[in-house]
Specification:
This protein is an alpha/beta fold. It contains nine helices and eight strands.
Length: about 290
Amino acid sequence: MKSLIINADDLGADEARNRGIFEAIEAGRVTSVSILVNGDGFEDAMERWKSLGKTEISLGIHINLSEGRPISQGLQVLAGQDGLFKGKQTARELLKQTSNKELEREIQQEIKAQLDLLKKFETPITHLDGHQHVHVMPAVLPIALAGTLDNKIPWLRIPDEPHPTALGLMTQDDMGDEAAMFSNLGAAARSFVMLTDIESCDHFRGLYLKGKLAISLLNELLQNLPIGLTELMVHPGRTSEAVSVGPFSAFSTRDREKELVALLDPLFPTLLEKYGIDLIPFPESLS
């Protein structure tokens, strides 16, 4: 049996991203979302979520330690003098550390603050993952695991995607290197997750589709989907007509609309049926 969770990352980044994601939800193409609680569009996203009235869509938290303004106060290591996170590249180097107690304290503080904020909305949190996959970085993984267990979140993303063999799924060398790095971190994380009661999907896809999702590539992916439960990470959205200068402004690009167009393609449901794939959300629990 082949089951597929199509999870849209970065809900809450801005209102344009939200519009695109909910368009995909309403069309039945996205079955799960991961929300940035420090995004400019967080409140808009939660208002849309409340009005959705669909319990079959799962909602998880997209832990963010790299971009935008933290939820907690007084961060000296994770944040710069302007009070903002230090950006993708700086955060990545920082979170490779494994023996920085002050860094670990701040990570724990910020993850707790982000979880506490989402919990105020009293909606089930079915899964935890990380913006730019920070949750599997060495400094973060033990804290993310503890937060997942403490908050009774059933699922945690393991982005251990094998390098694709299909020519259409190949990507540029720099993007391929980044995807391989995250995949290696995910493989290391899976061995730790297996020692806990936390669930993870059998397979993960999407690292090598970043910025290039198209119906032809979805066809290749679905045709080669392995047996079991797979999470497909996508980044659909709409672009904003207004000029945006916020920390997530780079997210709402034409690439987001390209992904949305691919997901909304009329051929997509036919492909799912052709290859015998069931679309599902993350279950709230396995009981």
